[in-house]
C-alpha cells in the first residue's frame, strides 16, 4: 500500500481530481469482468496526458510501486485486476480521437477511447472499424490492444493486432516509444509494436494508437444452419468460404440454443433440432452473392451436412438471428459458468471437441456443458454450468481439475489455452500447456528489458 | 576464421557434403544482391535437418563462432553478407513442403523452400500464395520471413508477416522455439513469432514456417494511367480503391518509363507523355467490375488527375503493361544505381517526394533520378544513376551525403529508412533516422536475451 508521503508526492504529478482512494473507486477500478479475486488497490490515478503517464511511471519506478493499467475492465482473465495493493493507472481521460486521414484511412486514438466511440467515428466518415465484440460499449482501445482482442469478425478482419498502424507506449522506466507511426511498410529493425500488442500491460502502458479503418462492407445477410455433427460444420465452412465473402462463422450447441430461447424470449430459427448450429454472415453486394449462398446451402443439404436452415430477409431478421448467438453468454451467467477460451487449428476442432466432451461426460456427468464460439477461427468457448445444488467452492475446485484435462487435450492438439481472453492471473497456472519452458523463460527476460523495476502489472502472465 | 581443429569438430555434426571451404562456395554463399562488401566467410555449412541446425548453433555458441544464416541471398541491404570470417549457415537443404491442410489453408515449409516453389504448390492445390517480388525464383521462405519481404501486392495482401501462421526458430543458445503452431487465435503470452519476423537472423535462425494460403483471386485487369503530378496519383488511388478491389497500385516516373522503353524493346503504353504513371491491377470477377473501373477512369480524366490511359484486354497485354514497371530495376542496373527504399504514410508521399527531388536537384544537378515503387503502400524507391563519367568511388561518397539529406526528410515525414529491404549492414548507420535511441537500446537488449553469446548474424541491424 502507499504511505501518506507517497500519496502526497504522487498527488503533485496530477490534477486534484485525478487521484482517488475512496472505496468505491478502488472497488470499481480494481476489478474486471472476472469476479474471482478481491479488488484491493492502494489508489487509482487518472492521468490526463501522456506526459502525466510518464511522470507517474517514473515516480512508481523510483518508489517501487506496482502499477496496474486499466481500460474498460471488461477482461475475462483478471489481467486488469488489482488485488495486491497496486496503484491502478486508468487511461479513461486519454480519450481523444484526432488526426483522421482519409487517404491513409487511419485515425489517432487515445488509449481510453471506447471501442464503440471509434466504431461510430468510422461510420460518420463512411468507413468501418471491424473489431467487434460484446463489450464494445465499455472496452477501450488501449485495453483491446494490450489484450489483442478478437471477437465475432476475426475470420474476415483478424484480431485487434491487424488494425494497429502505430503505437505509443510508456515502458517501465517511463520512456515513451513511438512505434511504427502509421506506416504500412517499415522494416527498420525489430517490430516492437507487435511485441507490445497482447502483452497485457506487463511490458509497458499503451497510451495512444493509430488505428486503421476499412471501407464499409456491402449489405450483409445472416444464415443459421442446423448440422448433425462438428465434422459437418467444417464442411459447411469450407463450402461457403469458397463461394461467398464470409464476415463471421460462429457456432453454438443445441444446449446453448435451448437456454437462449427459453430465457431470452426468442424463437427457434426453425423447428428441426440439430446437435450444432452454424451462424454465418456474408456480404451481399448483389443478387448474385445471395444466389450463390442459396446454391451453397442446397449443396450442403444434399451432402447431408445441413439438416435445416434460415436466411435473414431484413436487418431486423439478421439481428434476431445474431441474438441466438450473442445472448448465450448473458443467458448462462446465472449458472456462474466456468469459462474456457480454447483454440486449435480449424481442422482439429472436431477432434478437440470430441476429446473434451468425452472427458467431461466421463468424469463429471453431473455437469452441463454449453459450447459456442468462433468456429471459423478454431476458437471455442467451453462453459461448464454450476449445478444449482453444488456449493461454489466445490464447483470451482472440480472445474480446476477439469481444466487440467481440457488443457492436456488442448496441448495434444497444439492449441492455445487462451485464444482471445489473454492470460492475466486466471490462465497463468496453465501457460505451460501452450508455451514451452524456454518460451516462458524468454518472456520473463523480455519483461526485465522493458520493465527492469518489475512494476508493470506484476504477476500477470508471468510470476512476478 | 576457423582453426583446423574447429573445422574438424564442426564436420562431425553434419554429413560430408555439408561443410564447404572452397573459394567458389565461400564467394557464392558469402554475399547477397548487394555488391558493396567483399565476401569472406570462414566456411559454409548446409545442415539437412532442424537437429543439425541446433547442433551447429550449440557448437558455435561454445566455440564463439559468428554465424550468418543464408537463404536465397537476394537481399538488398547486405543482411546475409559474411565479410568477417563468419560461418555461413545455409538453409538450402531444409526445402521440404509438407502437411498441407485444405481446411486450414496452411502448409509447412522448410526455411529453404523457394518462394516460387510455394507459389506453384499453392496453385496446384487451387490456392494462392500472394507475396510476390522480382526474386521469387531464388528467394527462400526463411529469408523472406527474416526480412519480412514485401513486394508488389502489399496493398491487397500485406507483407510476408501476414502469412506466417507458425514459426520454428533456433535461438542463439540452440533452443528450438515452436511459435504459434498455425493458430489463428492465440493470446497466450507475448507473440515471439512477430518479434522474429523481420529480425534478419539476429535473434535466431528460422528453420521452418507454417504459411497461410489464400483463395485464388478472380481474373484481373491492368491499367496504366498518365498523371500530371503526385497529388493526382493520390486522388486516383483514392478513387479506384473505393470502387474496385485493387491487387496492386504501383507508380513510375517518365524518366523510368523512357529508360525501360528504350532498353527493353517495349512500346509506350500510349502517346501522351506524363510526369508520372500509375499502374494498377484489379480483380475483375464480372463485367460490373470492369465497368466500374472504366467509370472511375472517366471520372479521373474529368477531374484532371489522369491525362491518358490504357487497360489490358488479355493476359498478354496485362503482362506487357507489368513489364513497364517490373523491368525498371534491371534496365537501370547498367548505371549501377544507388538505391534507397523509403516510406512514409501514403498521404505524405507527395510532400516527401517533392522535398527529396528538390534536395537532389539543388545539390546534385548532375545526377539523374529514377523514381518508382509501391505508391499504394507509401513506399518509393529512389534510384540515383551514376553519371558515366564519374568514378565509382566519388559517386558512392556523394550518394552517401545525399542519403543523409534524404533520411532527414524521411525522418521529418515520420517515415522509414527501410520500407521493405531491411537494415543489414547497409542501412545500419541510418537506423537512428527511423528509430529512437531508446528503441535501438531496447533492441540491443532484446538481442542479448535471444543471443547471449552474440553469435547470431552479429553486426547486422545493430552494432555487434
UniProtKB/TrEMBL annotation, chains A, B:
Keyword Flavoprotein: yes
Keyword Thylakoid: no
SUPFAM superfamilies listed in its UniProt record: FAD-binding/transporter-associated domain-like, FAD-linked oxidases, C-terminal domain
Cofactor list: FAD
Keywords noted in UniProt: FAD, Flavoprotein, Oxidoreductase
Gene3D superfamilies given in the database record: 3.30.465.10, 3.30.70.2190, 3.30.70.2740, Uridine Diphospho-n-acetylenolpyruvylglucosamine Reductase, domain 2, Vanillyl-alcohol Oxidase, Chain A, domain 4
Annotated FAD-binding PCMH-type domain residues: 37-216
Protein name per UniProt: FAD-binding oxidoreductase
Organism from which the protein derives: Congregibacter brevis
Taxonomy of the source species: Bacteria, Pseudomonadati, Pseudomonadota, Gammaproteobacteria, Cellvibrionales
